[in-house]
Amino acid sequence: MFETIKNTKEYCNSLTRYSRYKTREVYVGNIPCGGDNPIRIQSMTTTDTMNTKATVEQTIRMVESGCDYVRITAPSKLEAQNLSNIKAELRKRGYNVPLIADIHFTPNAAEIAAGIVEKVRINPGNYADRKRFQNIEYTNDDYAAKLGRIRQKFTPLVKVCKEYGTAMRIGTNHGSLSDRIMNRYGDTPLGMVESALEFVRICEDLDYRQIILSMKASNPQVMVKAYRLLIQKMEEEGMNYPLHLGVTEAGGGEDGRIKSALGIGTLLEDGLGDTVRVSLTEDPEFEAPVAVKLVNRYNNRTGHSFIKPIKDIPFNPFEYSKKYSIEISGIGGRNVPVVIADYSNRKLINPSDLEDFGYIYNASAGKWSMTDTAADFLYLGTQIIPFEFPVGLKVIYDYSIRENLKNSSKNFFLLNSGNYLAGRKELEGINLLSIDINSLSEKIIDKLKNDNKTILVLETKNLHGMAEQRRVYFELLNNHIDNPVILKRTYKGLSIDELMLYSSTDIGALLIDGFGDGVWIDVQGTITEDSTQLTDSNGRYIKQFVKNESKEKVVNRLLFGILQAARVRISKTEYIACPSCGRTLFDLQETTDMIRKKTEHLKGIKIAVMGCIVNGPGEMADADYGYVGSGVKKITLYRGKEIVKRNISANTAVETLIELIKKDNNWVDPKK
Questions:
Q1: CA–CA distance, 17 with 302 (Å, rounded to integer)
Q2: Which residues pair with 284 in a beta bridge?
Q3: 217-246 pLDDT per residue, tens
Q4: pTM over the 0.85 mark
C-alpha cells in the first residue's frame, strides 16, 4: 500500500512504481467509474440530438467500437427532452449504455436532462457564469457575492441529480474560464482547478458526491499540469473524485492521435485517470479504438522491473521549466531539441534515400535543399556511405568503426560505458554516450561531472520505461550533471497506431516536463498496418503511410509531430479543431481538411476550427486565427480572441481567412 500524498510536489502514488491512483467509486448508470474499476472509455455523438434515429444509430456504432459511456449534446430544453426518446429507443434495441448529457449555458436544460440520463456534464466556465473577456477587479466581497449567485443557479441541478441518482461531470476547459476566474487566477492550471472546485464545494455542502472531474486543454502541457494540481488540491481538501482524461480540440489524423497520447498517456503513466475520451475531428466511432489502445497498455504494467524510489522530487511537476543543459555542438543550451534519424538497419545507397529525412538532392545542379522537418543527425551504425552528405547534416557512427573512417574527427561516435570509461586518447572530441539506469554507475557520474564534450543518449528496456528514464534524469539533476540528453526509445512488433501512441506517450511525457535535448526512435523490424478502419479524410492518410512510405520516413515525421505537440519545437502549422457534436453548424471534417490543404505550409501559425460558439472563442485558447460556426452556413473569423468578421458565408470563409492571414503579413506562398 502507498501512503497518502504528503510531499508538496507529489501528485500520484509513486513516480517510480506503477500504481493506479485510487479514487472514490461513482456510478454512471450500471457502470461504475473510479475505485477499483477498469478505466472506462467514452465518446460523444456528432448528430443532431433532435434526430432520434441518427443519434441512436451512431450511439450503437460507438458502443460496438468500445465505448462504455456515450455523451450527447443538449444545448436547449428541446434537445434535453428528446434524450428520453433516444434512451427509450436504445433500450428497445437492447443497448443499456449509460448516456451523458453535455450542457453549456442552459441550467434549465441540465435539470431536465438530469431526470432522464445517467450523467450530466457541465462546464463551470459557462454554467451560471460567463466569459466576455472583461477585466474586472473583484473585491473579496464581490467575489463572494458572485459565488452566491452561482450557488443559487447551480443548486436546483444538484437536487435533481440527488433525486434521480444521476452522476455529474464538472468539466473545466482551459479556453472557457470565466472572467471572474481569469481576473483572480489568470489563464493558469490553478485557475482551471479552482473553477471546478468551487462547484465541487457547493455539491459537498449539499451532500452530493457523485462527481467526476476533468481539466481539458488543447495544449497538453497545460492539461497535464492542471490534472496534477487538481490531485494535490483534492488531497488537501480530503477529496478523491474520479478523473475524466482528455485533450480537447486535438484535431484529426496523425496530429490528433499524437497530441491526445501525449496528454492522456502522460497521466496514465503515473496511474491517473478513471475514464478517457480521445477527441478527434473524425466520426466518433473512430475515437474509442484509439482510447482502448492507450488504456490497455497498462493492463500488465505493475510487473515492471524495480526502479529505485525517489525521496525528493528535483523539479516542479506543476509548472513547465526546461532543464538547464550546456550546449554541445548545437545540442542543448537554448537550442530546440534535435531529431536523430536512424538508418542503421537499412542500406543507404543513393542521395535520394535522404528524402526520408527531409533532404532533397538535385542531381543536375549537384545541390541539396531541406524541408522544415529535416533531421539534424543521421545514425548509420557501422555503414560507410559512398557519397557526400549535405552540409549541416551531422552523422553518428558506432565507435567500433572509427578507425575505418578517413575523416573521423568530423563525425560523431556512439560509445558504450566501457568505451567511455577506458578514456583512451582517440575518444577526445565530441561523442555520444549510451546510458541507461543500470550503466549509470558512480564512475560514469564522476567522469561526467568534469566532461563538457559528451552528449548522453538515454535508453531503457523497462516495461515502465518513461518512469525509469525520468528517474535517471533525477539522478543527473541531483549530481549537477548538465550534459545534453537525447531521449531514445526502441520498439518492435507494433502497429502504426501503437507506435504513434506509445512513442508520443513515452517521449512526450518527458518533454513536457522539460526533459530532453533531442529525440530518437529505433523501430526494429517492420511497422504493421493497424486493423482499425479510419475516416475517409485524415484516416486515409494514416493508412497510406504504412503501405507507401518507408518506416524511416514515418518515424521522422512522428518525431517532429511529438516535438510540436509538446510545444518544444514548431515545424509546421498547428490546427486546434474540435471533434464536432450536435451543435456543429458545418461539416467540420471536410472544412478542417480544406483549411489544412491551403495553409499547412505556414510554419508556426496556429489555426482553430470550431463548430459553434460554445467552442469558440474561449476554447481556441492561444490560436492565432479562429474559424467559428456562428449560424447555419455562417462563419465568424477571429484574430486571436478578437472578432474580425461576423456571419460571413461558409462558401467564401476559407478564402476570407487566407486574406486575413495575408493582411497580417503572416502568409508565405507554398513551395512548388
A1: 8
A2: none
A3: 989 999 999 999 999 999 999 999 999 999
A4: yes
